[in-house]
Amino acid sequence: MTVKIDGHKRISVNERRLFHGTSPEIVEAICKQNFDCRLHGKNATRYGQGSYFALNASYSHDYAKEDMNSSRFMFLAKVLVGSYTRGYSGHRRPPQKDPSNLASDLYDSCVDYISNPTIFVVFDTDQFYPEYIITYSTVSKSTSSNYSSRQTRRARLLYAANLYNLGTASNPSGSAARSGYAASTASTLGLASVNPRRSLYNRGTTSNPSGSAARSGYAASTASTLGLASVNPRRSLYNRGTTSNPSGSAARSGYAASTASTLGLASVNPRRSLYNRGTTSNPSGSAARSGYAASTASTLGLASVNPRRSLYNRGIASNPSDSAARSGYTASTAASSLGLTSNLTRSLNNILETTSNPSGSAARSGYTASTAASSLGLTSSLTRSSNNLETTSNPGGSAARSGYTASTAASSLELTSNLTRSSNNLETTSNPGGSAARSGYTASTAASSLELTSNLTRSSNNLETTSNPSGSAARSGYTASTAASSLELTSNLTRNSNNLETTSNPGDLLHEVATHTRLLPLACGSAARSGYTASTAASSLELTSNLTRSLNNILETTSNPSGSAARSGYTVSTAASSLELTSNLTRSLNNILETTSNPSGSAARSGYTASTAASSLELTSSLTRSSNNLETTSNPSGSAARSGYTASTAASSLELTSNLTRSLNNILETTSNPSGSAARSGYTASTAASSLELTSNLTRSLNNILDTTSNPSGSAVQRSRSSNVLSSSVSSRGLQRAANKDVAPREKKEKEKEKGQMRDNVNTEDTN
């Protein structure tokens, strides 16, 4: 390759395609920021401190590290090597062509051997471009009986993704447009290797052998009926497409179903990238806008089904025994003594969706995950974002406009249940023993001798409601109830809001807060428009409970088991024995009136209520809140108004950490003290423990805020962005300064008296 300069001189840039192996965690960084020897050139500096590229892929293979799925990543890059010379470890740039002349030109790159170079070191990022990503794995397999005495090892190229490119391809038995890959039918005898490839950031379509499709990435592959079948469809990042299954039609899908071999070993590994859209149908039903279809394992031998799907895609799938429209995902997994992973990811905008449960009907739903297993490692992940109406029904009731219902039960297993949802309209779900409207999530998890993780994430911009098992509720936020024995539990609460907030404390006083915060007294009165109330109790456990909520213009309410409430969002009930339990709830609110009731009182316009108790444990309670509107919640023994956070923690023989963070803009807030009233407050943290190490951190940033706090026996005064710390040390310093003020005049008088006596003595001596 040559370049003209001024129409005369031609310079050779010597462009080559070279390989670069790297670690999985920095692949995305290279795609976004190109190679950077300062960050990514960690492994070798023998020929210079630049970016290394190899002529042979076998050399780069040694630097391509495996990820959790045993996949390796290698870049095929265009590199302008230009003129080169032998490199050494001390080179930070190419050496001069004429060392005796300081003004001489530099070489363009360094190599290992000048006569026959296999390694090139480039120091300028403008000289290389990552053109392809090659994802592959190294596999050991036992072949047929003729080769049973030895294993063959070969690398399977899964996909080579062409970055920032557009292309089309048609399938053998259908038509397609804007596609990257066509369908491949594996051999019926011997070894079948199906390796389609697709580039990044492109759009395309492809059709399956028995159907039509548009904007797809991968077509269905039928594994071999005899011998060894290896079906490896691959899809790149940020593309869109559709594909149809062998027995149905679909639109805008990513992966179709793959039928494993009926004899031998079947390996079905569909993969899907980020930010794509698509639909696919299941073998016994139709669906639209889906991501992955079901895979039928082999009837003889070993079947390995590993579907993968990334975040921020769109699609719909139907269940095997029912029809559905505009749905997200339905994962049903059951196994014994196996490692089972079920991952579902979905994002929807302005979509009407519906799915039905096995024993009920539903409309406009998102996800329903049902997992049961024994002696296995089970992971069930559900992710959903939506901006329209959605509904789902529970096994024993009906519901409308709901998001997720996750029911998980297992014995002696590791269970993970992740639910993520964002919505900007009405949603409803019903609990097993009650009715509800406009709700978000209901997660019920029970297990024995397991590690359980339940994650709920929700964002909404309209009305939401859910009911508790023994009462009704409407337009509420979150209610998390966790009880366990001999477990590790974490309780975190995070809240965003753009209005005023208020809460009352049970009746104690917090003494110190961090820099740029102020002293906040506790309260035992009524409250309205509150944010969070965290109460934790447990036995012999480490407890973590995370709640995060964001809402826009929403009226929300929830009721506790012994009272009624309206405008609710989430209800999380978790119970387990001898397990590690994590319950995460995420929610954000803006300009919202919210209400929740405590077990022994009523409240209005609240956000979260977390109840946790523990003994002999390490307890961490984190609360984060930002709000620009009014919110209130009531404590178990009283009411309060316009507060932010209330953290109540009690434990014995534990290490306790309570962190509260709050940022407010243009907010009036109020909190009452145990024996008085107060207005416009921020945080209240109450911690009590025995034989423990206790850390209580409160952080608050306020802009243009009138703040008021009242003393325990008097009225409140206004403070604006001041840091007030009340403690015994501060009080001691204040008393000392006051004492010093009294001592100074006495010392001055005594010194003047001594000087007078000295003058009298001198005069007496002169007279003598």
TrEMBL record:
One of its GO terms (cellular component) is nucleus. Residues 739-758 have a biased composition (Basic and acidic residues). SUPFAM superfamilies: ADP-ribosylation. One of its GO terms (molecular function) is NAD+-protein mono-ADP-ribosyltransferase activity. Residues 421-433, 458-473, 705-716 have a biased composition (Polar residues). InterPro entries: ARTD-AVP (IPR051712), Poly(ADP-ribose)pol_cat_dom (IPR012317). Residues 381-394, 619-635, 717-733 have a biased composition (Low complexity). Residues 197-216, 234-253, 271-290, 381-405, 417-441, 456-479, 619-646, 705-768 are annotated as: Disordered. Keywords: Glycosyltransferase, NAD, Transferase. Gene3D superfamilies: 3.90.228.10. Pfam families: PARP. Residues 1-157 form the PARP catalytic domain. Its EC number is 2.4.2.-. This is Poly [ADP-ribose] polymerase.
